[in-house]
Structures are given as structure tokens and as C-alpha cells.
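We emphasize that the prediction below concerns an isolated chain of 152 residues; any contacts that depend on oligomerization or on bound cofactors are therefore not represented. The input was used exactly as deposited, without trimming of termini.
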Amino acid sequence: MRELGLRGARRGREFKRTTFGDDRLARPSDLVDRHFVASAPNRLWVADLTYEKTHAGWAYVAFIIDVFSRFIVGWQVSNSLRSDLAIDALDMALFARGRRLKGLVHHSDRGVQHLSVRYSERLGEAGVVASVGSKGDSYDWPNRSTASTRVS
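Result of the prediction step, given as a C-alpha cell string:
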């Protein structure tokens, strides 16, 4: 089928790519190394984007989760994947948990929304340290059985 340029029918969820990483660009180090455990609140946050097709079109959701409590500390929903989507979720989290969070590690995937200059500046202003994982991290973080170290 591949040689003829044919594809099988796909059922279920339609795939939509939301992360467009550029491997040539410098990015923050991976400070988490797939060990998604924190010793207290506001030590490690994970951020990601997801989407769902609705009758009205695509709905995009940006969210930030405190790994210690597994509580969503910031979120935003939009009908477009605009640049402010992730920043609005970050602003909600910073407001809810306090603007100065020195020592907090913010971990995300390689998506352009989390690596943008404005997003990075907002993290820096709050004293938050950015961490960017390798491909696939967003699918691994809920699995605590792989965690052997703690972010403190």
C-alpha cells in the first residue's frame, strides 16, 4: 500500500499535530529526566497542550499541573492555537500560586508555545526555572512508577 501511496481507513480520533520543534534551536535542559515526583507543592509543574474536535471545530486547552498535588494550577481554552493560549494558562498559575516562585521547575515538551520568548520571559520574571524534555515526555509524566528521584 505504501508503494502505491495508499492508506488504510482510520477510525476514532483524528490526529492533529500541535508541537513543531526545531532541533537546531537551543532549548533549556531536561532537569526532570522523566522523574515526575516533587517533595512539596510548587517544586515541579508540568505544562502541555491538548485538543479535541467538537461540532463547532477544534478546541485547544493549555494546562499546567503541580506534580506534587496533581492539581491543575493554570488552564486556558481557545478555538485557536494562538500564542497567548499557553501564556494565559501560565498567568493563571502564577496568580493562583504567587508571582514569585523561586526554585520552581516548569517542565514542558518542545512545543513552540512553551519555548517562545514571551513565555520564557514570564517564567524568568517569576523566578521559575524552565525544563524541556525529550520527545514523548508528556505521555510519561503520570506514570509515577518510573520516578526514582525527587525535585526538591
